Amino acid sequence: MNSTGADASGVQGDDHADRVLGESQPVRDYFGPAYGSIAGFGGLLREQGELRGLIGPREVSRLWERHLLNSGAVVPYLPQSGLVVDVGSGAGLPGIIIGMMRPDLRVVLIEPMERRTAWLEEVVAQWNLTNVDVRRGRAEEYHGAFEADAVTSRAVASLAKLARMSLPLLRHRGEMVVLKGRNVAQEIEPARKVLRSFKTSEPEILAGETVAGVEPTTILRLRRG
């Protein structure tokens, strides 16, 4: 009983700290004009995310640090204009965040699960994201349907599998810009064969920094030949 109470107290403390972070001026400045929309989206995700199977119970208390800011970290590495495809968009991380921060980009969210596409469509409608389009299905079903300027994803698959899913969606010289774990360097060698088949550039591992005190996100970027 004591351990359960301590754990609950810790989660509540984390939740309070995360809410304070989300309301802080550095976070407001980082997201700029998109802050209001992103805060609203985060609030809805906090309220409904676990119930609708979009995020795990432990993630509710760290939405800003681990999910919203994490997703926003990819935005500086995206092209200045054009089409961005988010593979396995799930709860809309990072695709919805990209759509809110970059209304100048066209964003397509590809997600195979019906309950998640329903959620994404609700979010797109609620925030009138006219630049965002939701497609239900697996990425492989859309090979040849797009010539994207960039493809992104977050915690979807190993690099080898992700490359097979994502690279056919890109135009020549388009970029795959994905959010990965800190051990992504270990995924590069097993992916060499598929990367060579698309004549990609050498993968770059980049630090996606957001606000002071928040751990940078690991981003991997490569260009299709």
TrEMBL record:
UniProt keyword terms in alphabetical order: Cytoplasm, Methyltransferase, rRNA processing, S-adenosyl-L-methionine, Transferase
Gene Ontology molecular function terms on file: rRNA (guanine-N7-)-methyltransferase activity
One GO cellular component term noted in the UniProt record for this chain: cytosol
Residues noted as binding S-adenosyl-L-methionine in the record, renumbered to the chain: G88, L93, A139, E140, R154
Keyword RNA-binding on entry: no
Keyword rRNA processing: yes
Localization in the cell: Cytoplasm
Family assignment from sequence similarity: Belongs to the methyltransferase superfamily. RNA methyltransferase RsmG family.
Name of the molecule in the record: Ribosomal RNA small subunit methyltransferase G
